[in-house]
């Protein structure tokens, strides 16, 4: 068979590797992408820009030659213009204006996502940036090298916004962080957790402006000089937009069924409404184990898993995806927040009736050195009717991030709070307490 993959970032790469490693001997794999690079780990952009790592070079984890060595044909800087789904033909244009066509037996769309660009007055001014591609990270990095760039306005206090705010502050810039929500990270955490990060940002001299809507970019001599919101006007030498992402699901046109946000609607095999077309990564939907329904969660980890599952199914090996929890984490100035599944706020938004339990304790026994023994705050969210665990959040200066994987599995497998109460958790003073905060939270929970 002939497979054509459109898009070669995380989902497309996972799909290509799956096909080449498992089915490559008698099949043809074509990879097409409009970018001039592939496999950029954008989650490392802020670490590089903030000089917490010395170079961006290792943020690329593979290269075209790796796929060519396995027998793939890869075409970068190539834009797909349209797809004839009836005759199974992909029409594309290479950078040098050469037009090409590729037929396919199975098509895998991995178009990814695109930054949300607010349609505000002044949007065409120089000095307004986004963060998605390597080239965009490079542009921001070069701006922060300039001595006349003293004040940076970051619009959007999700993960990328908070991370780039820290990076710019580490580069010695005055940083203003804006969001329409009442706290940062509001899509992932309840206020009891996100406000911990808010205070952490302020403690490191990042100026937070929440509950503010950007209304206009103000300019001078063609360059942005200020940001106007519904509450005021703020001088800024550059503006970095980190409002969020939308599915970049364009090529399917009216041929493929869509989710409410425009993403391709796929089944648990990542097959679209066209049986010969699969969609993976940020351009497609996911199955949420917490909601037990279709949803959209754009994360690199989800993209990789969807690429693997979609490719196997495209090749004829029927594998159902395990579903996702949206597990995630962030570390800013040593404060670590991790979460999975639904927050209380998110559950309410989706109409799921839940309870929750909070617990806070030190990670280690009191006799352990205080310098190694930070407090951990945990929240477990569970469904009222069934006591099924649907979410968890943790915050600490201690590195407890691996624990969120256990809660992710618990949600995936439909475990209840009753099962969590007597979970076999080992004790060793170097790692935890005999009365572990997970156990104590589960015992404290109201399960009536």
Automatic annotation (TrEMBL):
Sequence ranges assigned to domain FAD/NAD(P)-binding in this UniProt record: 2-307
The keyword Ligase appears for this protein: no
Source taxon at top rank: Bacteria
Catalytic reaction(s) noted: 2 NADH + O2 + 2 H(+) = 2 NAD(+) + 2 H2O
E.C. no: 1.6.3.4
Keyword line: FAD, Flavoprotein, NAD, Oxidation, Oxidoreductase, Redox-active center
Cofactor(s), by name: FAD
Domain (Pyridine nucleotide-disulphide oxidoreductase dimerisation) ranges: 334-431
Top-level EC class as recorded in UniProt: oxidoreductase
Similarity comment: family membership: Belongs to the class-III pyridine nucleotide-disulfide oxidoreductase family.
Name of the protein this chain belongs to: NADH oxidase
Organism: Lactobacillus iners DSM 13335
